[in-house]
Amino acid sequence: MQTNSTTMILKEIVTPLLRWYHSHARILPWRENPNPYFVWISEIMLQQTRVEAVKPYFDRFISALPTVESLAEVPENELLKLWEGLGYYNRARNLQKSAQEIVINHDGKLPANYKKLLSLPGIGPYTAGAIASIAYQIPVPAVDGNVLRVITRLLASRDDIMKEKTRKKIESYLAQVIPANEAGNFNQSLMELGATVCLPKGAAKCYSCPLKQICLSFAEDCISEIPVKTPKKTKRIESYTMLRLQYENKIALQKRPSTGLLASLWELPHLDNHMGQAQIIHYLQEKNYKVKNITPLPPSKHIFTHIEWHMIGYYIELEQIPAKSNYHWISPQNLIDDYAIPTAFKGYL
DNA sequence: AATACGGGGTA
DNA sequence: TACCCAGTATT
């Protein structure tokens, strides 16, 4: 073990951070009973997702699926319905794959082992560290965006936090100072500080930071310059015309492909580009749908991480549909109960 | 190493 | 707008 200046600084934060966390930890649903299953579910939900967004999903999810076994067995449509609107839907499917593996290979319990956790689908270095430390008190780091920001600022490091190398370096530093009996509290205290005090984009509340005496960026007055992040590339724009098709009080839906964006979720029928009423009527007539009434719906925009959807839409009442319609015709109540529909389409439902 | 993968909150 | 969020999997 090395004891360079970096490690010495990090050793100094342990006690003040734990003391601060003891009195400032937010009360969160998944902290009430931090059993491995609840910790796991919460950590998956929290990937790239804010605490406030997760809260209602977490409570509903663990009520519906309180055990690893129940998650392993739930039908996919029910699972996706529980995840509807939360985004990154592969998280839900990977959760179930892992649950099935855990039932088969680990006696239905999350393994108390960092590498075994890491091998499960949907669990990467951060989540493996979070579960290991929070649920099992195993002294391994859990480095998320908060921790990257807190530590680079603490050290006044200009390392690019988008690079894996930076994360690994910080993990190796932290591994040397994690207190043996409070691994979970220590990791959570770093994240909590990042989430509530050491805020991004010039919003840091250094005046109330328990580490301001130690923080090199605070001393050098360069908080606003750290962390360094490589800029992300611009989004592409895609245009669609959404069809809100109505026939005998039922709505047309179709299932999205099993791979790619919003895989396997349900969607409204739609055409590429922005089409006029005449083009839509022509398109439907060719497929033997007879239009009774068509009215334009207001444009809407949905922004993904890497794509922007620019949508227009039409509300269309049909008086006849072909014997073999490619669409699924769903009653409104059935749609609410059983069909997971991404937020992007909600503007036209 | 770069890109795909949601959705919402904030300055 | 642009950035950011208790990141991971795939290419």
Automatic annotation (TrEMBL):
Function: Adenine glycosylase active on G-A mispairs. MutY also corrects error-prone DNA synthesis past GO lesions which are due to the oxidatively damaged form of guanine: 7,8-dihydro-8-oxoguanine (8-oxo-dGTP).
Superkingdom of this protein's organism: Bacteria
Ranges of residues in domain HhH-GPD: 45-196
InterPro entries: A/G_AdeGlyc_MutY, DNA_glycosylase, Endonuclease-III-like_CS2, HhH-GPD_domain, HhH_base_excis_C, HhH_motif, MIG/MutY, MutY_C
Gene Ontology biological process terms from the UniProt entry: base-excision repair; mismatch repair
One Gene Ontology MF term: 8-oxo-7,8-dihydroguanine DNA N-glycosylase activity
Assigned protein family: Belongs to the Nth/MutY family.
EC number per UniProt: 3.2.2.31
Keywords in alphabetical order: 4Fe-4S, DNA damage, DNA repair, Glycosidase, Hydrolase, Iron, Iron-sulfur, Metal-binding
Known catalytic reactions: Hydrolyzes free adenine bases from 7,8-dihydro-8-oxoguanine:adenine mismatched double-stranded DNA, leaving an apurinic site
Enzyme class: hydrolase
PANTHER family found in the cross-reference section: ADENINE DNA GLYCOSYLASE
Cofactor note: Binds 1 [4Fe-4S] cluster.
Stated name of the protein: Adenine DNA glycosylase
Coiled coil regions in record: none
Organism expressing this protein natively: Selenobaculum gibii
Cofactor(s) in the UniProt record: [4Fe-4S] cluster
